[in-house]
Design goal:
Layout lengths: L1 H11 L6 H8 L6 H17 L12 E7 L2 E7 L5 H7 L21 E4 L2 E4 L12 E3 L12 H8 L9 H14 L5 H7 L10 H16 L3
Parallel strand pairs: 1-5
Antiparallel strand pairs: 1-2, 3-4, 3-5
The structure holds FE2/S2 (inorganic) cluster (2 copies).
Length: 219
């Protein structure tokens, strides 16, 4: 009796040809592993798409107020947006001193100061920089009044293509705030996270020592 009801159910159940029903119904043991994985991912994605909008996480943009070079700047970005991307691409006017080179925390071209400490802005989310003092190379001095390090880079001709320069200037400026009379070894140590593909290191270090001398009057 039972057997006959089951066969009736099978006959009367509406046929659902979807890939998800197929995978859930028959299992994936007999399919090649790679193909099965792909199909499960697609089925899962479809299920996510069917979820109500408010149950998804990290979608859309958030409003932020960032304190950049002493000014409060408002910006609307996705939570996953890096500080570097925010500075360069989501502000008007943009802050383009920090450069995008490696985008993975290996070159130092994107260095900014967060509460006075050098940080790779390509590795910091903009949302994590809220309530921190963000200083870029633009905030260290102005065209009319370069800071000691910026002036020394000009005097010592410490750049070639210039892509690494904002990062070096920012890092060295932070060093001199902490240590006004560093040795060459200390300068090199402070700059170990900054790379210059043009190989201008000797002049960069010379500029750092000259800036320290100029700022403090050491001879
Ligand atoms: S761009 Fe950030 S470390 Fe290279
Ligand atoms: S001056 Fe070109 S990378 Fe440093």
């Amino acid at each position: 009796m039972k057997k006959s009801r089951e066969s009736t159910d099978k006959r009367t159940r509406p046929y659902d040809p979807s890939r998800r029903s197929f995978l859930k119904g028959v299992g994936i043991a007999g399919a090649g592993a790679a193909v099965a994985d792909k199909l499960w991912v697609e089925a899962g994605t479809k299920e996510n798409d069917e979820q109500p909008q408010n149950s998804r996480v990290l979608s859309g943009t958030v409003p932020l107020v960032l304190e950049i070079n002493g000014q409060k700047r408002t910006v609307q970005v996705e939570p996953r947006t890096t500080l570097l991307n925010t500075l360069r691409n989501h502000l008007d006017p943009a802050v383009t001193g920090p450069k995008l080179v490696c985008d993975m925390g290996t070159c130092g071209a994107c260095t900014v100061l967060l509460d006075g400490k050098p940080a790779y802005s390509c590795l910091v989310l903009a949302v994590d920089a809220v309530r921190k003092q963000i200083t870029t190379v633009e905030g260290l001095g102005s065209l009319e009044k370069l800071n000691a390090v910026q002036g020394a880079f000009v005097d010592k001709d410490a750049l070639m293509c210039g892509f690494c320069t904002p990062g070096f200037v920012t890092t060295i400026s932070a060093l001199l705030k902490k240590n006004s009379n560093p040795t060459l070894t200390e300068v090199r140590e402070a700059c170990k996270g900054n790379f210059c593909r043009c190989g201008t290191y000797p002049r960069v270090f010379e500029a750092a020592l000259a800036a320290a001398k100029n700022a403090t009057g050491n001879s």
